[in-house]
Amino acid sequence: MTAPIPTGGYADANRRQVLYWRLLSRLFDRDEQPGLESASVAVVDDLGLPAALLDPSVSVDTIVQRFPALAAELRGLLTSAEAQPHADGTHDAQSHAGGPHVAGPGGDEPDDAANNGEAHAAAPDGTGPEGPAGDPAGDGSAYRPGAAEVRRAALVSKVLLNVFATGSGPVSATQLARWQSDAGWFEQALGCEPGELRRQGGGLGGTLAGLEGDLVRRMHLREVLADPALASQLTPSMSLIEQLLRDKANLSGVALANAKALIRRFVDEVAEVLRTQVQQTSVGALDRSVPPKRVFRNLDLDRTIWQNLTNWSPDDERLYVDRLYYRHTARRTTPSRLIVVVDQSGSMVDAMVNCTILASIFAGLPKVDVHLVAYDTRALDLTPWVHDPFEVLLRTQLGGGTDGTAALTLARPKIAEPKNTVLVWISDFYEVNHQAVFDGLQAVHRSGVKVIPVGSVSSSGQQSVNPWFRQRLKDQGTPVISGHIRKLVVELKNFLT
């Protein structure tokens, strides 16, 4: 357990200084500085902030998803600070943030020396070569930052480090999407809409656009797809499909055609595997009100012989048949409705691919009416394309937040007969409105619908499910299915057949 750090006086100035020194160290030196790292961990822990703020591999979106209250603090974080109070109670417009300066949306740089990137290290007791930290005169008259400024420094460090420390080497589509999301938060911190600065170009916007272009070039996927010979050598895999789905909006011509061919190959391969696990006919009670079909395969030979025994001729030693009897094969079935709701956020790519393919297979079964809904912060009804998972995947947009209330609004009207309806909800359940989503699923369950929550249906069986949802869904009798996709296949077959 990290011991609490003293606060007040010059202690807060020193804590803020530690965070900014760590930021500069990580931006300009790839090697970690153990002293700065351990001190920063202690500061963040003392502030009650998540330790993930210090991990550049964790996106800002993930932080906000886990801790929604931080979203409001991040928006406008780097806009003009409120005037800081002097010791005599007066205010001025000059910020004493003391951290790395970030140019405004227009890219203008300040003329004063207070934001020229220079910093003066303070000694542990708060003194330095020019007196106490932040007090060049040494008379204690300078503004002293409080705990709120230290908290702000921690959030600023997270945003700046995630955006400007892009590293080197090959980049995956996932890393690119994460950077784009972090850049969007950086733009919101400056008071702009996500993507606004990058669209403007010039100044800071030009810098961001340059960083994004560098990441895209390091991915190299477009170059491979543009060459039919190289593209033909690619073997479809889940990771490759994820990159293609993320980057499909930026592809055109030959590259887009090759990308679609790879997605189609992968869909067909997975569908073939899943199809062997799914029973192709529905099972139900025989419907004797429907006359049997008079074909040879339905001939009931035993009954035909029994009913014609009176026609036995001892002299001829033959059984003369004057009537044939056939088996009833029609089954009395009630049409079942399968509603599949898929979280299309970036963390659910594997599940989304598998479940859209599985939905298309069940859509081919008799007496099964399949509906497909994909959602992030908005819901999209993909039912018209449910028979073609390839088209479904091309219409999805990976990434974004997760708000299941939009999907519930779209799915509820599809429930006509609750007792004959199954709702499959695929998500990691890290929802923006978690209580509202749980209440909605609980109401659907109580109406008689069979609810099957799915945390992961990947080929590898890996999973990530919000513990809050996992426990509550288990308590209401609808535990989250996790592991291999075969588990979901078994559950659906038991209900639909």
From TrEMBL:
This is VWA containing CoxE family protein. InterPro entries: LolB (IPR050458), Uncharacterised_CoxE (IPR008912), VWF_A (IPR002035), vWFA_dom_sf (IPR036465). It comes from Micromonospora lupini str. Lupac 08. Residues 113-142 have a biased composition (Low complexity). Pfam families: VWA_CoxE. Residues 82-144 are annotated as: Disordered. PANTHER family: OUTER MEMBRANE LOLAB LIPOPROTEIN INSERTION APPARATUS (PTHR30634), OUTER-MEMBRANE LIPOPROTEIN LOLB (PTHR30634:SF16). Residues 335-493 form the VWFA domain.
